[in-house]
Specification:
single chain; mainly alpha; 67% helix; 0% strand; globular; DNA polymerase I; nucleic acid binding; RNaseH-like_sf; RNaseH_sf
């Protein structure tokens, strides 16, 4: 989401499904309504949906790498945004 913000700060949603559709042309099916795995008959389908989401994050990383270069924000992400987000996550 940080890379997406730096590429297009005025966008309305930074949700994974919205970014996947716009930048990769892929629709994501939710794992469950609350995004958590549940025990039951659908465990395999839910696990698959989570794996697809993880793959989408990797693919978006590659897509945004190119776009960050185009807008000159690669160093901003690496030197400021990511270290700051790590620091804030520890608070």
């Amino acid at each position: 989401a940080l890379a997406a913000y730096l590429v297009k700060p005025g966008r309305r949603s930074f949700a994974l499904d919205a970014l996947s559709l716009e930048y990769l042309g892929r629709e994501l099916a939710p794992a469950t309504a609350d995004g958590q795995l549940t025990l039951g008959a659908d465990d395999e389908a839910e696990a698959h949906a989570l794996m697809v989401q993880a793959r989408t994050v990797l693919d978006l990383g590659a897509a945004f790498g190119e776009r960050l270069e185009q807008v000159g924000a690669t160093e901003l992400l690496a030197d400021i945004e990511l270290p700051t987000s790590i620091l804030l996550a520890t608070l």
